[in-house]
Specification:
Length: about 190
């Protein structure tokens, strides 16, 4: 036999072995599949028997459902209470912020009143100086029209400053009384 013939014979033998081996592999796999199906069938039979023999869990399931419903209702109640309390706290916060704003407004009005009072003091000081100069001129018997005009202007400035101070004082008093009156009306 030649090398080519030997090679062809070897290929043929090899292919024959493969076909036989493939068939035995299929038989082996079929056997394994049947064994697995048998085991699965026995497992299902055991489950059916266990379920029939096992305790009835329907009552426990119903108890758990009832407990779950009660807990859900309790959570809902707690959420409503939290929402109510949050609303109350927000209302108190808003009221506190309003009071703070009123206090800031009152402080601003008091500062304005202080400025106006300082203006009254300056105007009164000018008026006092003008009056003293006018008295001195009258004692000497000299009626200086310039001094009279200066005194009249100082007096007008003093009156304007006093009026502005009165307005600022009235605003400060009103801003202090407004929250008290509102609170008294709410309580009445």
């Amino acid at each position: 036999m030649s090398v080519d013939q030997r090679f062809d014979a070897w290929q043929t033998a090899k292919n024959d072995l493969r076909g036989t081996q493939a068939m035995s592999d299929i038989d082996e796999l079929q056997g394994r599949i049947l064994a697995a199906m048998e085991r699965a069938s026995r497992g299902l039979e055991k489950l059916a028997v266990t379920k029939e023999d096992g305790p009835d869990l329907s009552q426990e399931l119903e108890d758990e459902r009832l407990a779950n419903a009660q807990l859900t209702e309790r959570v809902k109640t707690l959420k409503q209470r939290l929402d109510t309390e949050t609303g109350d706290v927000q209302a108190k916060l808003d009221a506190a912020q309003a009071q703070l704003a009123q206090a800031a407004d009152a402080q601003s009005r008091m500062a304005k009143l202080d400025v106006e009072l300082q203006r009254v003091r300056r105007a009164n000081a000018k008026l006092s100086e003008a009056c003293a100069a006018l008295r001195a001129a009258n004692q000497e018997g000299v009626g200086d029209p310039h001094l009279i005009n200066k005194a009249m202007l100082a007096e007008l400035d003093a009156l304007r400053a006093a009026r502005a101070a009165d307005i600022a004082e009235t605003d400060a008093i009103l801003s202090a009384l407004t929250p008290l009156v509102a609170a008294a009306q709410e309580n009445a």
